[in-house]
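Notebook, student rotation project (T.W.).
Task set for the rotation: take a protein with a known small-molecule partner, predict the structure of the complex, and write up what can be learned from the model alone. Partner molecule chosen: coenzyme A. Sequence and SMILES entered below by T.W., checked by me.
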Amino acid sequence: MKIVENALTPQIFSELRNTGPFIPYEEEDIIYALEHSLFNVVIYDEQKAVGIARLIGDNRLTFIIKDVVVLPRYQNRGVGDLLIKQLFKYIEANACTNAYIGLMSTPHKEGFYEKYGFIRRPNEKYGAGMVMFYKGGKISE
Ligand SMILES: CC(C)(COP(=O)(O)OP(=O)(O)OC[C@H]1O[C@@H](n2cnc3c(N)ncnc32)[C@H](O)[C@@H]1OP(=O)(O)O)[C@@H](O)C(=O)NCCC(=O)NCCS
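Predicted structure of the complex:
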């Protein structure tokens, strides 16, 4: 396996995400999003991209882990672990003390993230994570 930093292309992004429970996006929007991400990592087996992950955020206080995907036939072989460790090398080089490292888990993957110290929400101290899938139109009035 080969780890390559900041090698994520719109093609690889869509190909891997389309194997999981993720909403597809237009290529022009993916290009924009990748250009405005902090960091990404691609794991290759020979020439084939088999795992991806990226970080978005303000590069100091806040880091959000997004689009962690391993091709189904490569799962449970340590690729996800390589991805998260690579993201944390970047975070360790850039985050301040108490930086917020967030993510939204897909169903039944919470245990994978707990291994790295992530806390399941909601709990007594922290409310639920929340999300919206914006469909256009005004919410601001
Ligand atoms: C979640 C995902 C990235 C994990 O990648 P992976 O390559 O299968 O994980 P690894 O083989 O590196 O596993 C690392 C460790 O996590 C554990 N683990 C993996 N999936 C787990 C799960 N669902 N629950 C609990 N532990 C899990 C493994 O047992 C392993 O533990 P070990 O180090 O003690 O042996 C992968 O299953 C995936 O891409 N799923 C589909 C897309 C998705 O849902 N992504 C998450 C988006 S939030």
